[in-house]
């Protein structure tokens, strides 16, 4: 295959003539947001789906490669959290005129970075709360509210989101996490698409083991 025929991760619109789906990486301007190659959102503006990402909290939104994000998905960052260990939760320090000092970080419910692994599918209108870590290959059901970590290759749904089931056996999941297909060169990924899109998990397992053994030498 000619290299020019391969998908370019820095293309904004990956579907010719369609403006309601974009590769996210080339559109990101906020230095606190990091998105891997080929991850897309079913919209024309990704950063409008990230709320309360303020410089002073120094938190980050980190999204891996090949993620699929539905329309209406919202990432709520730590700036949305109010002080809860005080008499009032009102953020006096953010409003001009009160002259209030910013609370010390240890007095704020800061939950750290929000991290989405590789090949994660987030259904439309899902809400991802601050500090959540979503594992590789996870699926988030539409309209879900995710407030706790999601294990790799796990399906969750609901408000609050709860585990529905594991996608694969423990053995296949461990092989996939070891294989890390998303980190392979795009030429190789193009070759293994038949494996990635197969529902024959027994054959998929064999092919992964074969590829892992081949690359060990």
Describe this structure in words.
The protein has 217 residues and is α/β, with parallel strands linked by helices. It is 17% helix and 18% strand. The protein is built from four helices and 15 strands. The protein has helices at residues 170-179, 186-191, 193-196, 201-216, and strands spanning 22-23, 33-35, 40-41, 50-51, 61-63, 68-69, 74-76, 114-116, 121-122, 127-128, 133-134, 139-140, 145-146, 154-157, 162-166. Helix 1 (170-179) crosses helix 4. The radius of gyration is 20 Å and the shape is globular. The protein starts with 21 loop residues before the first strand and ends with a helix. The relative contact order is 0.10. The model has no long low-confidence stretch (mean pLDDT 94).
Concise synopsis of the structure shown:
The chain is 17% helix and 18% strand. With 217 residues, it is α/β, with parallel strands linked by helices.
Secondary structure elements and pairings:
Blueprint: E1 22-23, E2 33-35, E3 40-41, E4 50-51, E5 61-63, E6 68-69, E7 74-76, E8 114-116, E9 121-122, E10 127-128, E11 133-134, E12 139-140, E13 145-146, E14 154-157, E15 162-166, H1 170-179, H2 186-191, H3 193-196, H4 201-216
Parallel strand pairs: 2-5, 3-6, 4-7, 5-8, 6-9, 7-10, 8-11, 9-12, 10-13, 12-14
Antiparallel strand pairs: 1-3, 14-15
Helix pairs in contact: 1-4
